[in-house]
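Tip: read the tokens left to right.
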């Protein structure tokens, strides 16, 4: 069988199971006596084994098979969850993750897992677990949630609602037979859903199915193991039913019993039961509706190739540009019909733009999920005790931002554990808890998302930073004396700055935090640091929700039009020429008692000017982190949705510019990069 066409689907599902394993193993380490967690781990390993065996990835199948054996011993109580067991299981998880990556790259057998297989066999020690017997597998699978039910009933004491009872009662009155069936599908079957469909088809030819467990929808979605149960009504005898099902390959009827539970029940009680049920349904309606909507929402999802989403966004961008053009045409050729049509197009375009933006949004959970395991391993290597708290993982960001934000967060968290957190004995000596606290939190703030990384470690000593900065000639001793503590601490973002005494595998490679700032600046974001000696540090990252279509203020400078992102603007004002002062040879103005540095855009961008002398100037007050500046422009053209276009390879990285946009009249306007301007 050619399985290459299924590799992409296998990759997606395997990554989900690996992530589930990661989360469950971390939970198991904290709660080693929780049997339900073991059940979840077992199911993920069991599913991975089946998937990999089907696809022909033998190493992955063998590894997950031995993991099942160890998990079975843990579940039965023959073995305990120890540090050695957890370390081995985590190593298995790392190997699985690496295997999935290799399969994606087209190499399925490049990983050497002999040592891992040996370690897993040693964990079984004296009492060998027999290739995880079917009974143990079913027991473990049954311990999990209903989303992967196997629900093999021990009796035929099935609960029926009023309608089902009525059907069974009517069937008995008509002399028909009611049967309970347990259907098993061979574990080696590659197409379980197809076999289940054949069972349904054959039964419906000779009778009627009135109950299925799992439900028909769950069976169609392959949310079942290798068995399911049915209750059927038929005029045929037991042998005829068995004959119709035994013709299906890889399917066996493991149990079949005639239902007699209605023999002793009086049908006169049905109406009373119906009334009771209706009353209960009214009481529970709100709750049921909510649950149904959640299930429907969960089922009705599709995976879409990211390239298609990018193409869709580009088309919406073109629509936005042409909408602006239509608005300009309507201003010069004003007619009632045209204005009404344009207003309608404006509404539709805005709604479409909003929908496409939401489709591109991805929860930060996709980035945050990797950090608990990373912190656990780091703390273990450094012999430190760290408790990681994550909040706001459901906060959503544009996919393009999500793809880029992972590395800066990894750097900040590794630095917090390596540099910020003290050894347990040092913490206790300073009156702190032995276990350090590191928190990662995200929330919305206007059109931005704020991500905060905080620790309760030793903080950053400004004197150490100052000494190192002078030593590396980043600043002079004279400059250091004039700088406040906050400015000195923020020198750690300078290129090549590092306070590490030795290069390690964790941090201190001399890269410092300049890589973090560079990456965040490239995303039109900002990063700020607050620290207090012996109390801890807090890094605050602010990012735009999206990098595709943004709101901007269009301004005119000389003969050119520029766009300034609204997310960078605090306010607009104006200043009289005689109120512009000079401090240290730089132009400034007073804004409500505060000194505001001024930037003349015509000089900074070398733009041809219309007139030299003016009595008043428009000022756009912009912000980058804690710093403010006033951009002097000739006129304010108004607010507008703009589509960000790349400047291309030739102009990439040009200081003061972050991209370009096409205006409604077809002209190109450059988008200002406030960070580099300030």
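Filled-in amino acids:
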């Amino acid at each position: 069988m050619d399985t290459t066409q299924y590799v992409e689907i296998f990759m997606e599902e395997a990554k989900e199971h690996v992530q589930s394993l990661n989360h469950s193993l971390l939970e198991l380490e904290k709660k080693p006596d929780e049997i339900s967690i073991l059940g979840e781990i077992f199911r993920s390993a069991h599913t991975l084994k089946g998937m990999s065996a089907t696809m022909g990835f033998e190493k992955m199948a063998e590894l997950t098979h031995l993991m099942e054996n160890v998990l079975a011993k843990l579940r039965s109580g023959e073995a305990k969850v120890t540090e050695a067991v957890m370390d081995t299981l985590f190593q298995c998880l790392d190997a699985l993750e690496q295997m999935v990556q290799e399969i994606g790259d087209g190499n399925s057998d490049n990983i050497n897992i002999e040592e891992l297989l040996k370690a897993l066999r040693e964990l079984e020690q004296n009492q060998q677990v027999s290739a995880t017997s079917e009974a143990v597998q079913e027991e473990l699978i049954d311990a999990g949630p209903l989303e992967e039910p196997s629900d093999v009933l021990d009796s035929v004491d099935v609960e029926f609602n009023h309608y089902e009872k009525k059907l069974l009662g009517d069937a008995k009155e008509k002399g028909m037979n009611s049967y309970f069936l347990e259907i098993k599908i061979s574990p080696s079957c590659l197409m379980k859903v197809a076999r289940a469909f054949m069972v349904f088809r054959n039964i419906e030819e000779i009778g009627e199915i009135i109950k299925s467990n799992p439900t028909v929808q769950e069976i169609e979605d392959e949310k079942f193991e290798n068995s399911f149960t049915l209750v059927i009504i038929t005029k045929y005898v037991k042998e005829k039913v068995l004959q119709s099902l035994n013709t299906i390959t890889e399917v066996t009827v493991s149990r079949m019993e005639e239902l007699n539970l209605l023999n002793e029940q009086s049908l006169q009680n049905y109406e009373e039961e119906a009334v009771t049920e209706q009353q209960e349904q009214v009481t529970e309606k709100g709750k049921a509706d909510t649950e149904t909507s959640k299930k429907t929402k969960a089922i009705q999802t599709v995976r879409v190739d990211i390239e298609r989403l990018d193409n869709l966004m580009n088309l919406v961008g073109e629509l936005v540009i042409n909408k602006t053009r239509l608005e300009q045409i309507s201003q010069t050729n004003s007619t009632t019909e045209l204005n009404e049509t344009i207003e309608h197009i404006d509404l539709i375009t805005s709604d479409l733009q909003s929908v496409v933006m939401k489709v591109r949004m991805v929860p930060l959970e996709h980035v945050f999920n990797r950090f608990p395991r990373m912190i656990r391993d780091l703390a273990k290597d450094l012999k430190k005790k760290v408790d990681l708290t994550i909040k706001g993982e459901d906060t959503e960001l544009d996919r393009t931002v999500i793809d880029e934000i992972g590395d800066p967060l990894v750097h900040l968290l590794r630095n917090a554990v390596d540099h910020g957190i003290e050894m347990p004995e040092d913490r206790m000596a300073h009156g702190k808890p032995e276990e350090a606290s590191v928190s990662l939190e995200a929330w919305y703030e206007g059109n931005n998302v704020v991500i905060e990384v905080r620790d309760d470690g030793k903080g950053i000593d400004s004197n150490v930073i100052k000494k190192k900065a002078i030593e590396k000639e980043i600043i002079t001793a004279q400059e250091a004396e004039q700088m406040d503590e906050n400015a000195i601490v923020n020198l750690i973002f300078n290129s090549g700055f590092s306070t590490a005494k030795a290069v390690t595998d964790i941090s201190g490679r001399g890269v410092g935090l300049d890589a973090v700032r560079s990456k965040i600046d490239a995303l039109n974001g900002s990063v700020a640091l607050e620290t207090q000696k012996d109390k801890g540090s807090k890094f605050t990252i602010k990012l735009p929700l999206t990098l595709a279509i943004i709101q901007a203020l269009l301004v005119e400078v000389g003969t050119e039009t520029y766009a300034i992102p609204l997310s960078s603007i605090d306010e607009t004002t104006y200043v009289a020429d005689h109120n512009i002062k000079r401090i240290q040879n730089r132009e400034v103005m007073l804004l409500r008692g505060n000194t505001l540095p001024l930037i003349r855009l015509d000089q900074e961008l070398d733009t041809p000017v219309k007139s030299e002398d003016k009595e008043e100037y428009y000022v756009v007050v912009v912000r980058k982190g804690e710093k403010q500046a006033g951009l002097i422009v000739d006129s304010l053209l108004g607010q507008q949705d703009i589509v960000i276009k790349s400047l291309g390879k030739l102009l990439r990285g040009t200081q003061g510019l972050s991209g370009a946009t096409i205006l409604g009249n077809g002209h190109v306007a450059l988008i200002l990069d406030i960070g580099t301007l300030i």
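The chain has five domains: 4-142, 162-272, 307-363, 365-544, 549-677. The CA atoms of residues 74 and 80 lie 6 Å apart.
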